[in-house]
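Hi support team,

I've been running sequence recovery on a batch of backbones for a student project. Most finish fine, but this one hangs at about 90% for roughly twenty minutes before it completes. I'm not sure whether the input is malformed or the queue is just slow. I've pasted the structure tokens below so you can try to reproduce it. Let me know if you need the job ID as well.

Thanks,
M.K.
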């Protein structure tokens, strides 16, 4: 009996799983792949094979996947990455790529322990972006190798508020621990064209020595979605405090 053709909807689901799965975990024994297979009524081997087909379409990795991807695979890949917000926006709010509707929360503050109402807005698509970036870096900080997810941040190179189109672009992200992320966000560190760390002259000597002592002087590149150099150029020229 001939195999059942893949549908666009199935491929979109598998592609999203590909994005948030570490490269070394694309195999039929992965529980997430098994769960996806059950959801779309495919075998785990078929889902894993389709994910390696997508790897063959991924221009950001050196190690090519299977070369026999279909025209529909390519069409779905292009559709997804050309308009990612359209497919992942429903994860957190219908207004994808923007701030959500205001959320009211109560905080306990003040010497008298007064409850203060604060209206906040949250960013859309950050959950998927975080999963995607951490998976690309095998859930390890690109500078320290720290592998505790609670201490890791999916850092935007071009700030989230600056470039709408780059907000969910996986090549606009780096997996950093919380301290290096803050230093990067504040322009105290950046990366040159060779992905080596540059420290701001405004950073106090002791702080610089401390950061340098427990982090590599060069970014460990991810298995896929290597940071775009044009984004790093922007960070060096517009965010980095160089004097």
């Amino acid at each position: 009996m001939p195999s059942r053709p893949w549908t666009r909807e199935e491929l979109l689901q598998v592609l999203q799983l590909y994005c948030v799965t570490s490269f070394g975990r694309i195999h039929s024994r992965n529980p997430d792949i098994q769960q996806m297979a059950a959801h779309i009524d495919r075998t785990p081997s078929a889902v894993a094979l389709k994910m390696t087909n997508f790897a063959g379409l991924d221009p950001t990795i050196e190690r090519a996947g299977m070369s026999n991807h279909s025209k529909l695979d390519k069409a779905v890949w292009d559709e997804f990455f050309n308009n990612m917000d359209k497919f992942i926006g429903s994860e957190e709010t219908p207004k994808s790529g923007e701030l959500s509707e205001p959320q009211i929360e109560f905080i306990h503050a003040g010497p008298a322990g007064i409850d203060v109402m604060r209206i906040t807005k949250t960013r859309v698509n950050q959950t998927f972006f975080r999963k995607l970036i951490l998976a690309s870096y095998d859930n390890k900080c690109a500078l320290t190798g720290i592998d505790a997810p609670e201490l890791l941040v999916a850092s935007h190179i071009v700030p989230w508020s600056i470039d709408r189109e780059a907000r969910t672009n996986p090549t606009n992200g780096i997996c950093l621990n919380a301290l290096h992320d803050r230093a990067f966000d504040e322009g105290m560190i950046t990366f040159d064209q060779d992905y080596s760390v540059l420290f701001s002259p405004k950073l106090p000597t002791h702080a610089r020595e401390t950061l340098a002592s427990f982090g590599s002087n060069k970014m460990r590149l991810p298995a896929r979605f290597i940071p775009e150099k044009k984004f790093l150029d922007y960070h060096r020229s517009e965010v980095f405090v160089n004097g």
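--
Follow-up from support: It reproduced on our side and the slowdown came from queue contention, not your input. Confidence is low (pLDDT under 50) at residues 90-124. No action needed from you.
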